[in-house]
Every structure is written in structure tokens, then in C-alpha cells.
């Protein structure tokens, strides 16, 4: 029996108590169903009693589970209230706002965005965890950060749509297809080639499936199937960019990441606008009590979003040259 319990297990239990369905609860918690089931089992092992009756569909709470629900709710309210009170008592000077962001956004978007002079409590004291898409989602859903910044697109996989999350659009970017260039500045590779011609391709690894799905959406627009041959994979856009500059193949990358290299003649965009896709940059947070600085930031961003609705929103591909 484990002697250490994780706070996330209690939140998992309340989710399954509310939904009575393991797959629905796992989706709301943004983890796989097997991982969610293991966490519920771990909680039951720590409690020393079964809390969920899995013999029925939908599942039901056991007698122990029914006793556990109100105490669990009360405990979580007290824990988060205590955390908020302590953070507020500590004052702004000792509180860092914690972010999780995709590597590309952490490098090319976040520094300029967080340094806007009208940001509340500027300069904002912050810390950053960088990771792939799934890491950022897990960091926010498990309470390891205050905010997550990631890409989003209406036709892409849903991002934190289920569960206690809210989001705001804070920028725009564009996925573009690029190639390295020869000594004359001409692209080394192109996609407007005879059908069946092999095209060396630099791909995102399986761990960053979100951008991979958006790229599949772009590819479906081309008039015939593209004969891509994967020669390199990575979850880091910066690594893929360097491989493209080295002449190893073509790759879809955020424009914010490659605009300087294109301007300097190290890369060339290929395929035209048909092979590109505009994507949103969104910031997510959990609904509920926040620190004073975190709440001030969110109110500022909400106000800015209202003011820019229907107008030009911060576009790093245009403003960060």
C-alpha cells in the first residue's frame, strides 16, 4: 500500500463521481483512460476501501464512496483556499506566475508578450516550463502551473474544452512549409513536382500529435498525394528548423520561428498560401480562486480581448521582425 497520496487523485475521484463514466472523466481530466483508472485504484489503495462499483454501467459509488464525496469536496476547498490565502498574505513580491508553453512560443512569443508595458504589475515576475503539447496540457490540468500557452485551431483536436478551464486568444501565427536553399537562394526542394517524386520530410515526433494533425489537414488540400519520405523526426521546432537550413528536407514550422531565417535567405517558403494555415495562440487557466497577480493578468487579457474583438490582434509573424 502506498503511503503517499497525490492531490490530483482527489480531483479525479470527484470527476468520476460526477460523470459516472471512466472515459468521460479521463477526457475531462485530460489524461488517458488507463492512467485515470490507475490513479483511482491508487486512491482506493490509499483509502483502504473500494470507492467505485465498476460492475454496473454507468458506474456507481460504493457506500464508502458516498461517505468520501462530501469530505473530499470539503478538503479540496480548504486546501485551495489555504493556498490562495497564503499566496495573498505573502504579497506580490514573493509570488511568481507560472507558465507552461510550447518550446516555440516560449522562445519566440512569450518574451515580447510578457514585456508589454501596460501589463499589470510590470515587470511581471514569472517562471516558465517548456514542453510539447501534451506536457503543457498535463501541467495545467494537474495544477503545476497557473497558465498554459499553446496553439489552437477550430479544425484541430480540442484543447482543454472539457473540464474547469477557460481560455483567451492572445495572438496569431501561421504554419508554413519551408525548405533550405542553394547558393543562389533557390529552394532545394519543392512539392510542385511530378507525382511519385520522393520528397525528404522533417516530421514532428509522435509526442507532438497536435501539430501533426493540423499538418495532415493542410496536406489534404494539395491536388494529389505528396510522396513524403521521413528522414528526421523531433518534437522541437527549433531542431527541425536547423535540419531544414542544413538542407535535409522540407518541414512545416510556425512562421514566428522561421521568419528571420527566411528574411536572411537561409530558408524559403514553398507551396504558397495553400500549404499554410493560420493558427491561434491561446492562453488557458483553470477556473477558480487565483492569486491576486494571476487574477489581475487575466482581467487585463480579458479586457484586451474585448477591445481587439474584430480588430487586429497581436500577430507575432508581423510584429516581431
TrEMBL record:
Pfam family membership, one: HTH_1
InterPro entries: LysR_HTH_N (IPR000847), LysR_subst-bd (IPR005119), WH-like_DNA-bd_sf (IPR036388), WH_DNA-bd_sf (IPR036390)
Swiss-Prot/TrEMBL keywords: DNA-binding, Transcription, Transcription regulation
Source organism, top-level taxon: Bacteria
Similarity field: Belongs to the LysR transcriptional regulatory family.
Residue span(s) of domain HTH lysR-type: 5-62
Protein's UniProt name: LysR substrate-binding domain-containing protein
Amino acid at each position: 500500500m502506498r503511503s503517499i497520496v497525490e492531490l490530483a487523485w482527489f480531483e479525479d475521484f470527484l470527476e468520476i463521481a460526477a460523470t459516472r463514466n471512466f472515459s468521460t472523466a479521463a477526457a475531462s481530466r485530460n489524461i488517458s483512460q488507463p492512467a485515470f483508472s490507475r490513479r483511482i485504484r491508487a486512491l482506493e489503495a490509499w483509502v483502504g476501501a473500494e470507492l467505485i462499483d465498476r460492475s454496473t454501467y454507468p458506474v456507481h459509488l460504493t457506500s464508502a464512496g458516498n461517505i468520501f464525496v462530501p469530505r473530499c469536496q470539503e478538503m479540496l476547498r480548504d486546501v485551495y483556499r489555504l493556498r490562495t490565502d497564503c499566496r495573498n498574505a505573502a504579497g506580490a513580491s514573493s509570488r511568481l506566475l507560472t507558465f507552461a508553453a510550447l518550446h516555440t512560443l516560449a522562445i519566440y512569443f512569450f518574451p515580447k508578450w510578457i514585456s508589454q508595458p501596460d501589463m499589470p504589475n510590470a515587470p511581471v515576475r514569472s517562471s516558465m516550463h517548456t514542453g510539447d503539447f501534451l506536457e503543457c496540457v498535463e501541467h495545467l490540468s494537474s495544477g503545476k502551473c497557473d497558465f498554459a500557452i499553446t496553439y489552437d485551431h477550430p479544425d484541430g483536436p480540442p484543447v482543454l474544452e472539457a473540464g474547469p478551464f477557460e481560455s483567451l486568444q492572445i495572438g496569431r501565427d501561421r504554419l508554413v512549409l519551408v525548405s533550405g536553399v542553394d547558393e543562389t537562394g533557390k529552394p532545394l526542394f519543392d512539392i510542385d513536382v511530378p507525382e511519385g517524386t520522393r520528397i525528404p520530410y522533417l516530421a514532428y515526433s509522435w509526442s507532438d500529435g497536435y501539430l501533426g494533425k493540423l499538418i495532415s489537414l493542410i496536406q489534404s488540400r494539395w491536388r494529389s498525394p505528396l510522396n513524403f519520405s521521413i528522414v528526421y523526426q523531433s518534437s522541437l521546432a527549433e531542431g527541425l528548423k536547423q535540419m531544414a537550413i542544413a538542407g535535409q528536407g522540407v518541414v512545416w514550422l510556425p512562421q514566428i520561428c522561421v521568419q528571420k531565417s527566411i528574411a536572411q535567405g537561409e530558408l524559403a517558403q514553398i507551396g504558397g498560401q495553400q500549404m499554410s494555415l493560420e493558427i491561434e495562440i491561446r492562453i488557458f487557466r483553470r477556473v477558480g480562486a487565483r492569486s491576486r497577480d494571476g487574477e489581475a493578468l487575466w482581467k487585463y487579457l480579458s479586457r484586451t480581448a474585448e477591445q481587439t474583438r474584430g480588430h487586429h490582434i497581436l500577430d507575432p509573424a508581423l510584429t516581431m521582425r
